[in-house]
């Protein structure tokens, strides 16, 4: 009986202990569940609090952006995101869809003057700091050319495209466009990427002509300047009064600084300065040009113009391994070639060009010397010197003394020989000398030299037999002009100096060095001898100094004669 009671008691105690443990575990689970629920509530509240803060910050940024846009736009709010496409234009003026014209017109943007835009890659941070420093990549400014683009697209010229995408553009680039007001520029500091830009005569005038295609400038952007067939790039280092300015109808002080030392080694052609009397040595490979330059100042030119001196350009070449050609041009033709030059020499071996005051192309200014590797790799030495004409004139005077009255003309060589020795001379002359039988030549040659004396069957010029192959290549192979014309050398030189629409001229109205263009449409301008550029440039008006009337520049001389003959 006691055993059963004890066993029942133990069983009861065990059940009580189990119930106590279960109750304890249940309390622990409930406590953990409450703690987990509390943590989840706190996390949810934290997320909701963060969302409220982000929304508040976004609203603040949006308000600031709107205020900034209104401030930069002078009270006009215009913002679009469009897909960019490239079109072959010049300058920095973009094409927008017609809906943009409506949006701007409704806000009276065109009543405030010229419209400008800030362009940036969509998704790029657009804070006030970024706006103030437009040198960040993927940001530039522009004007507008027309509102004819397809809806949803903006057409960008190469200048704007290259500044927005300096490396590679995505397949479907999205551009953020914002209307802004820009102050007129007063100062700009530019740096060419290539040192040869500074060799352009009056390069600031060339830069001014290029900037006429632009409405804006932005700091750290790169602008492209074209001078004939040459292309130069200049980086905008500094602008005043702001990092982005308008360049329309304003006078800007421009400083052009020298390129970095590392940029001087480029693929662009470079003019190496020549000093009078100091030879320069070099090596030129076949098909390659080496260029030099020299300048005539006032003192030098006055001496040459008086006939007391002449310029001698001498090229000594090593003929063992190759041959060269020598070309000279006067600026603005900076880089003479075999079909675009003012003077040339194609002699085998060493060669010399004499420039004197009787040549109409010679004058005050800068000249370029081009050495072309015609064949093989050639070592050369080039020298420019000013030679005195006084001694040369005295020698010429001595050689042109009067013919002896007791002289007879040799029937073979046509020289005048004293009559006492004419019979002996003619006997010797006819055995050793022979006259060239080519029509119009008649030059007297030694018998051993007559075999090498040949005439070109196309132009009739006389050469040594060894020179004929080079003559045919240089003078009679067809040349292709960049305007599409195909001519032989001499005709090509004439074409590119007076007829080619891509030749460089100095405009008589603006003073810039520009492409001549084709013949003007106006027949009166053709009679005046104006080029296409001068016809357009001369259509600008200026007030007459005598009466104040606005007269076209190209008709100012006629106006002065017709209206103010006494002046």
UniProtKB/TrEMBL annotation:
<dbReference type="GO" id="GO:0006511">
    <property type="term" value="P:ubiquitin-dependent protein catabolic process"/>
</dbReference>
<dbReference type="GO" id="GO:0031593">
    <property type="term" value="F:polyubiquitin modification-dependent protein binding"/>
</dbReference>
<feature type="domain" description="Ubiquitin fusion degradation protein UFD1 N-terminal subdomain 1">
    <location>
        <begin position="91"/>
        <end position="182"/>
    </location>
</feature>
<dbReference type="InterPro" id="IPR004854">
    <property type="entry name" value="Ufd1-like"/>
</dbReference>
<dbReference type="Pfam" id="PF23580">
    <property type="entry name" value="Znf_XAF1_N"/>
</dbReference>
<dbReference type="Pfam" id="PF21366">
    <property type="entry name" value="TRAFD1-XIAF1_ZnF"/>
</dbReference>
<dbReference type="GO" id="GO:0036503">
    <property type="term" value="P:ERAD pathway"/>
</dbReference>
<dbReference type="InterPro" id="IPR055417">
    <property type="entry name" value="UFD1_N1"/>
</dbReference>
<dbReference type="InterPro" id="IPR042299">
    <property type="entry name" value="Ufd1-like_Nn"/>
</dbReference>
<feature type="domain" description="Ubiquitin fusion degradation protein UFD1 N-terminal subdomain 2">
    <location>
        <begin position="184"/>
        <end position="259"/>
    </location>
</feature>
<comment type="similarity">
    <text>Belongs to the UFD1 family.</text>
</comment>
<dbReference type="InterPro" id="IPR049439">
    <property type="entry name" value="TRAFD1-XIAF1_Znf"/>
</dbReference>
<dbReference type="InterPro" id="IPR013083">
    <property type="entry name" value="Znf_RING/FYVE/PHD"/>
</dbReference>
<keyword id="KW-0833">Ubl conjugation pathway</keyword>
<dbReference type="InterPro" id="IPR055418">
    <property type="entry name" value="UFD1_N2"/>
</dbReference>
<protein>
    <recommendedName>
        <fullName>Ubiquitin fusion degradation UFD1 family protein</fullName>
    </recommendedName>
</protein>
<dbReference type="GO" id="GO:0034098">
    <property type="term" value="C:VCP-NPL4-UFD1 AAA ATPase complex"/>
</dbReference>
<feature type="region of interest" description="Disordered">
    <location>
        <begin position="1"/>
        <end position="21"/>
    </location>
</feature>
<dbReference type="Pfam" id="PF24842">
    <property type="entry name" value="UFD1_N2"/>
</dbReference>
<feature type="domain" description="TRAFD1/XAF1 zinc finger">
    <location>
        <begin position="527"/>
        <end position="559"/>
    </location>
</feature>
<dbReference type="Pfam" id="PF03152">
    <property type="entry name" value="UFD1_N1"/>
</dbReference>
